[in-house]
Amino acid sequence: MGLKENIQEIQSRIEKAAARSGRQATDITLVAVSKTVDLDKVRMAYELGLRNFGENRVQELQQKMAGLPEASWHMIGRLQSNKIKDVVGQVKLIHSLDRWKLAEDLEKRGQQAGLEVPVLIEVNISGEKQKAGFPASEVKALLESAGQFKSLRIYGFMTMAPLTGQAELSRPIFRELSDMKQQLSKKSYTNVELKHLSMGMSDDFEVAIEEGASIVRIGTALFRIKDRVEG
Ligand SMILES: *Cc1c(COP(=O)(O)O)cnc(C)c1O
Fold first, then answer.
1. Whole-angstrom distance, CA of residue 18 vs CA of residue 70
2. Dist. CA 224 → ligand 1 center (Å)
3. What spacing in Å lies between the alpha carbon of 22 and ligand 1's midpoint?
4. pLDDT digit string (tens) for 18-71?
């Protein structure tokens, strides 16, 4: 199967999972994770209709953005404070606001540049020690403090389930984030609009959509071209 077939297959699986959650494929944004993928192939994916691409390293993100500026780019990986200026104003959405200091630094840069900085709060639902993200217990306090921001805008949450290769094991994690969004949506917070849940990758995006994901981040399943097994 080639790239075109991969895209078609993923889109059809997104459509079916969306239907199971009472939604349409157009309610779900597919972010094609293009890390380590050659620019030529990324461009081909754009020509085949994909519009949103995600990268987890700033340097690679910058190279890809320069090569394909007509696409919408998403920063999905850990963002070091000294790389902020290369990202603010350049990307459509930062999915990985994972610590208080980064919120302060993004806010500062946004003010300097006179730009809005759209972010998702990365939440470490699974509680794994090595994993980035706010503990679930701190999220409410962050939303409450958002009123003081002039540039930072919070549009929802992102999480990564533990890598198990088994989609069903991700379900409780996705459900917890979805419940959290529902709970916190009951109150309104200044500079906060909880419209997005970025969750689900190649191995578990259908489960994520069933649990309410509005953005899925898919790399391997799109870009890995399966070899034909012969003989
Ligand atoms: C690499 C990556 C993905 C995509 O993972 P696949 O399993 O290749 O689909 C999604 N989100 C983040 C943050 C990543 O770093």
1. 27
2. 13
3. 25
4. 999 999 999 999 999 999 999 999 999 999 999 999 999 999 999 999 999 999
